[in-house]
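Entry 0007
Protein: beta-glucosidase
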Amino acid sequence: HHVAACAKHYVGDGGTHNGINENNTIISRHGLLKIHMAPYYQAVKKGVATVMVSYSSWNGKKMHASRDLVTGYLKNHLKFR
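Output (structure tokens):
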């Protein structure tokens, strides 16, 4: 039997304003990468099968609409496939 792991909720979901679900994470890019990206880096490095993008926002922009972080960082930089 095989199990497919899913890393979620990419990225910054644990840092939303007042801890409210699907809220806004207000932090610099450096802070986002330093504080919130480490688990995803490790998950991708270990071969995680899927990554679920968060419904939350980063500095007012919905995470699932962030081409920079989803395509640029997750797919191109971390090499998630």
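Curator remark: The longest helix spans residues 67-77. The mean pLDDT is 96.
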